[in-house]
Amino acid sequence: MRRGDAEGAAQFWRDPAMPYAESRRACRSRACYRPHTHPTFSIGAVDEGTSVFCGLGGGPVLLHPGTVIFVPAGRVHACNPLPGAAWSYQMLHLDAAWLRAVRGEGGRLAAAEPVRIVRDPAVYARFGELNALLFSRAAPADKAAALIAFVKDGSAAPAQPIDAPAAPSRQLEAALAFLRQAPDAEASLEDLARLAGMSRYALIRAFRAATGLTPHAWRLNQRVNAAREHIRAGERLADVAHRLGFADQAHLQRVFKAHAGVTPGGYRG
């Protein structure tokens, strides 16, 4: 299914037969993103203009047309156009468990995978062909076969790596686990510090070092990711806002657009 936002700048493809994949195409977009993470593995390509990639452990890196970037699940990043400029891009999101299963068929899995920036014209051309196929009326079986082939072959392409940060400490992981399990929970900075056995100052520093975000920003990002799931499931936006602890639908809309580049309504189509 194709979905476009109100400005016509972005289209989304989703298919119930392939729930592990979602693709997006944006043309001449000026939308900017806050640093954020996805629970999915993301593959993006720059079609036109120049993007500035920023991520924990590296950056900023200029991404020119023809560049393909592979971003593991959970890695903080942001790709934005140059100030006052626009860019066109494609972005594919893949369920992390599905990807691990595909990569594990006849191969080894990397423990802490880096972000990979690929500047190979052949990889870019093949990614464009894959995305065009996904947006077409081709059979889901053909789309799935092309997707699996690209994932397997793309993993071997020469790339500029941006290494993953060190794993969170056991103390910090207690706070992160709580927020992952309950993105709608009302937890103060004091509550999170108590869970981690740290002072508030130490918690903020540990959060920034491990995730690139403050506890508040990380929590908002988790809520936006949860909102995506509820919106795809067809829930009313007012209900999503209430469920996830936003002040109201307008608050959800502002935060969602800052992270996703489109409004919740534009994302749902």
Keywords:
three-stranded antiparallel β-sheet, 2 domains, globular, Jelly Rolls, eight-stranded antiparallel β-sheet, disordered N terminus, 22% strand, 269 residues
Give an overview of the whole structure.
With about 270 residues, this protein is an alpha+beta fold. The chain has 2 domains: about 160 residues, Jelly Rolls, CATH 2.60.120; about 100 residues, Homeodomain-like (Arc Repressor Mutant, subunit A). The protein contains 10 helices and 11 strands. β5 and β6 form a beta hairpin. α2 runs antiparallel to α3 and α4 crosses α5. About 35% of the residues are buried. The N terminus is likely disordered.
Topology:
Blueprint: E1 2-4, E2 10-13, E3 21-29, E4 41-48, E5 51-55, E6 58-63, E7 68-71, E8 77-81, E9 87-94, H1 96-103, E10 115-118, H2 121-134, H3 140-154, E11 160-162, H4 170-181, H5 189-196, H6 200-211, H7 215-232, H8 237-243, H9 249-260, H10 264-268
Antiparallel strand pairs: 1-2, 2-3, 3-9, 4-7, 4-9, 5-6, 5-8, 7-10, 10-11
Helix pairs in contact: 2-3, 4-5, 7-9
Brief rundown of the structure:
With 269 residues, the protein is α+β, with helices and mostly antiparallel strands.
Number of helices: 10
Distance N terminus to C terminus? 10 Å
Domain count, please report it. 2
Which sequence of strands runs across the widest sheet? 1-2-3-9-4-7-10-11
- Encode the helix/strand succession as letters: EEEEEEEEEHEHHEHHHHHHH
**Helix-residue proportion:** 40-55%
CATH superfamily of the largest domain: Regulatory protein AraC
The proportion of residues in beta strands is 15-25%
Task: Write the CATH fold name of the largest domain.
Answer: Jelly Rolls
- How does the overall form come out from the CA principal axes? globular
- CATH C-level of the largest domain: Mainly Beta
| Largest sheet composition | 8 strands, antiparallel
Tally of extended strands?
11
CATH architecture identity of the largest domain: Sandwich
Question: Which ranges are low-confidence, i.e. pLDDT below 50, for 5 or more consecutive residues?
Answer: 1-8
What would you call the structural class?
A: alpha+beta
Mean of residue pLDDT values: 89
